[in-house]
Amino acid sequence: MQNGFYNATGGMVTQFNRLDVISNNLANTNTNGFKRDDVVIGDFMRLYEEFKHELPLKNHTREASKFLNRTLNRVPIVVEEYSDMNIGNFERTENPLDLALKNKNAFFAIQTPNGVRYTRDGAFELNNNGILVNKQGFPVLSREGIDESGFININLSSNNVEINKNGDIFIRELTNADIGNSEQIGSIAVVSFINPNYLKKVGNNLYEIPLERVNERQNINDSDVVESGFIEKSNINPIYEMTALITTNRLVDIYSKVLKTFQEDLNTEAINKLAVHRA
After folding, report:
1. How far apart are CA 38 and CA 42, in angstroms?
2. CB–CB of 77/12 below 8 Å?
3. Terminus of the chain with fewer CB atoms < 10 Å: N or C?
4. What digits encode the pLDDT tens for the residues 32-43?
5. Strand order in the sheet with 200-203
6. Contact 150, 141 (CB under 8 A)
7. What pTM does this model have?
8. Which residues contact 47 (CB under 8 A, 6 or more apart)?
9. What is the pLDDT of residues 89-115, one digit of tens each?
């Protein structure tokens, strides 16, 4: 058995998986609030140590077989994929419905057909019914109605919407006799999580939290995290990602050459030598 063949194959597959992650990062360079993903590369030894007591056979084999098993356990694999939650740059838009969050553990709550989801993308707008929605048309939940699908309605004729740093929404009517007064009409739900690492990307720039951890969600009130008139851009560094893309492509090419050497050179030599029959 050619152990190096398995090591090279595992290494190539691992780099293919890393290529997928890097390509997705580059594709979302201009996606508002997007968080870059990365992978941790390890080996099968970690999996073996976690599940060795559940394996059907105990390791009572000869020393040569033990050596072979240890070699195969070192085949590289992706052991973890994670998101870098650092805050991206803020871009000024002057649109009061564009909101950015200054705390990396802060998210807007969105009502989707599949339940409540969370996002860092605060590029909101009003639909034809005056409901505050995201770019996909999903309603933004209010602080008071986050558990009852409470939406936020804003009069379409109002052109003086103000949102403060706590997510409270005010309307200031210029036709009023006293234009210095403003009326609060609601508050946007901004939440955090005890352990945000459990958040999972589900597409459309949204996250979900496992049902068993929904109780770890916490409302953020009076915490000065909302910045109106700004949009958070992605935290992707295109130069870094392109450098990683080039490095990964080179590793794939190296592994490919190693596999070719095993298949065409070493196998051919082994067959020619082992096939020699001596009388």
Report:
1. 13
2. no
3. C
4. 999 999 998 877
5. 200-203, 206-208, 115-119, 107-112, 190-193, 217-219
6. yes
7. 0.79
8. 77, 79
9. 999 999 999 999 999 999 999 999 999
